[in-house]
């Protein structure tokens, strides 16, 4: 085996290629050639990742069979006091997901939930609701399950709270933010990323959401920045692939589309606004950060048609399915019971989905608030967030529904604290 690294530039498309299938064929051939130039075959490189992942799958399957909890849980008090144990940190790294217990006092979270109801009812939201603005979270009845509401006082209070900032900084620090003399992001400053809320009532039937990923689609293989970010998968140094390395991930472009997320997130997350039992249609993940390497390399194997990326395409979420990822899906693991005020987090590249439920017991209410540290990509999105905040509009990553433009009790500029201002790029 030679250790040479092929430095021939890969074909890349900084905007969506006009002919997707031709571009897939071209980039796959080039990635295979680059791997081959290292002296290893695609099959050998994939086998390295497959083994790493298979060991984790076996461990998780055994834990589930023993009835043990798979998801790490850390008390907010330990994060705030800096007393999280080394064992807990190691498990967070191993699993890539986390429940933060008592992130907010339960009474606070329940009060926020009630305030959101008052906010939307005072603005006659349910009378005016026009149906889902996108097909991603669609298929609900006349009352939405996902509320396209971004600027309620409750959401903004949570986003700019000290408690949220502490947890985000803790999570951001699980990633490597500096390498090769570059500071890829600032772990101690979050860029405020407005997202929606979900309120699912008792008795609800929900089909759930199939297993998928959110970091992007074809750009993960096709833009220069991501080709560098995932370089170890493609240049014969697969052993060095580190899912926690932010290098080259925080400045490059995303392909536009209905499922895009403009910002770089270290973790996706939500804060519970109601108590939820683990069997009531809750979030599941494949809690293996290295699985991203498997997902990136799998399309290069010979059994996948040359113009297919295992079903990944623009304008659709990145699917994880039994056809191509059966090994990974054995490890699907749900969150434990959570209380209002707990928060739930998962590595931004992680496979996740939502279980179906019939006749749900209790409410299923959450505020989506990720950890999205300040970096060039997030700074570039911030002006559109500021404009959406100023006008009460839907942020540009989301359907242009704009319900809140005429709602005068939304969170106001004067209510911003220093964290909120910094998160919007104002100070
Ligand atoms: Fe998702």
Annotate the secondary structure layout.
Layout: H1 20-37, H2 42-65, E1 73-75, H3 76-81, H4 86-95, E2 97-101, H5 106-122, H6 125-128, E3 146-147, H7 153-159, H8 162-172, E4 178-179, E5 182-183, E6 186-190, E7 197-200, E8 209-213, H9 219-222, H10 224-229, H11 231-234, E9 267-272, E10 283-285, H12 291-297, E11 318-319, H13 322-329, E12 333-334, E13 343-347, E14 352-354, E15 364-368, E16 373-374, H14 376-391, H15 418-423
Parallel strand pairs: 1-2
Antiparallel strand pairs: 2-13, 3-7, 4-5, 6-16, 7-15, 8-11, 8-14, 9-13, 9-15, 10-12, 10-14
The chain binds fe (ii) ion.
Largest sheet: 7 strands, mixed
Secondary-structure content class: alpha+beta
Ligand inventory reads: fe (ii) ion
Q: Which spans have pLDDT < 50 for at least 5 consecutive residues? A: none
Q: Calculate Rg over CA atoms.
A: 21 Å
Count the DSSP helices. Answer: 15
3D architecture notes:
With 427 residues, the chain is of the alpha+beta class. 35% of the residues lie in helices and 13% in strands. The chain has 15 helices and 16 strands. It has helices at residues 20-37, 42-65, 76-81, 86-95, 106-122, 125-128, 153-159, 162-172, 219-222, 224-229, 231-234, 291-297, 322-329, 376-391, 418-423; strands at 73-75, 97-101, 146-147, 178-179, 182-183, 186-190, 197-200, 209-213, 267-272, 283-285, 318-319, 333-334, 343-347, 352-354, 364-368, 373-374. A seven-stranded mixed beta sheet has the order 1-2-13-9-15-7-3. The protein is globular and about 65 Å long. The N and C termini lie far apart (53 Å). It binds fe (ii) ion. Fe (ii) ion binds at residues 212, 214, 352. Fe (ii) ion is lined by residues 212, 214, 352.
């Amino acid at each position: 085996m030679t250790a040479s690294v092929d430095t021939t530039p890969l074909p890349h498309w900084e905007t969506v290629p006009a002919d997707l299938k031709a571009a897939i064929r071209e980039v796959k051939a080039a990635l295979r050639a680059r791997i081959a130039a290292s002296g290893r075959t695609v099959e050998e490189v994939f086998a390295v990742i497959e083994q790493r992942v298979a060991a984790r799958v076996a461990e998780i399957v055994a834990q589930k069979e023993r009835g043990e909890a798979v998801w790490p849980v850390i008390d907010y008090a330990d994060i705030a006091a800096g007393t999280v144990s080394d064992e807990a940190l190691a498990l967070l790294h191993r699993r890539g997901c986390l429940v933060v217990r008592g992130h907010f006092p339960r009474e606070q979270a329940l009060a926020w939930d009630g305030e959101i109801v008052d906010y939307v009812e005072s603005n006659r939201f349910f009378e005016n609701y026009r149906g889902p603005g996108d097909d991603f979270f669609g298929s609900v009845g006349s009352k939405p399950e996902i509320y396209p509401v971004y600027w309620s006082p409750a959401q903004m209070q949570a986003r700019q709270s000290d408690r949220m900032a502490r947890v985000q900084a803790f999570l951001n620090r699980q990633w490597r933010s500096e390498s090769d003399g570059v500071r890829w992001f600032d772990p101690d400053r979050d860029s405020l990323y407005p997202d929606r809320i979900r309120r699912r009532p008792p008795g609800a039937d929900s089909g759930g959401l199939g297993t998928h990923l959110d970091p992007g689609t074809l750009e993960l293989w096709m833009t220069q920045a991501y080709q560098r970010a995932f370089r170890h998968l493609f240049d014969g140094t697969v052993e060095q692939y580190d899912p926690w390395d932010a290098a080259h991930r925080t400045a490059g472009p995303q392909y536009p589309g209905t499922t895009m997320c403009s910002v770089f997130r270290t973790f996706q997350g939500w804060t519970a606004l109601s108590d939820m039992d683990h069997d009531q249609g809750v979030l599941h993940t494949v809690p293996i950060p290295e699985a991203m390497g498997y997902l990136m390399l799998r399309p290069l194997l010979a059994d996948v048609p040359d113009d297919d990326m295992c079903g990944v395409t623009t304008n659709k979420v990145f699917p994880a399915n039994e056809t191509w990822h059966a090994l990974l899906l054995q490890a699907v693991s749900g969150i434990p019971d959570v209380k209002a005020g707990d928060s739930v987090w998962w590595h931004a590249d992680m496979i996740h989905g939502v279980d179906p439920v019939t006749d749900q017991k209790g409410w299923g209410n959450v505020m989506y608030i990720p950890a999205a540290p300040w970096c060039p990509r997030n700074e570039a999105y911030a002006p559109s967030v500021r404009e959406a905040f100023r006008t009460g509009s839907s942020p540009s990553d989301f359907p242009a529904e704009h319900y809140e433009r005429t709602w005068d009790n939304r969170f106001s500029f004067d209510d911003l604290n220093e964290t909120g201002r910094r998160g919007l790029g104002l100070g």
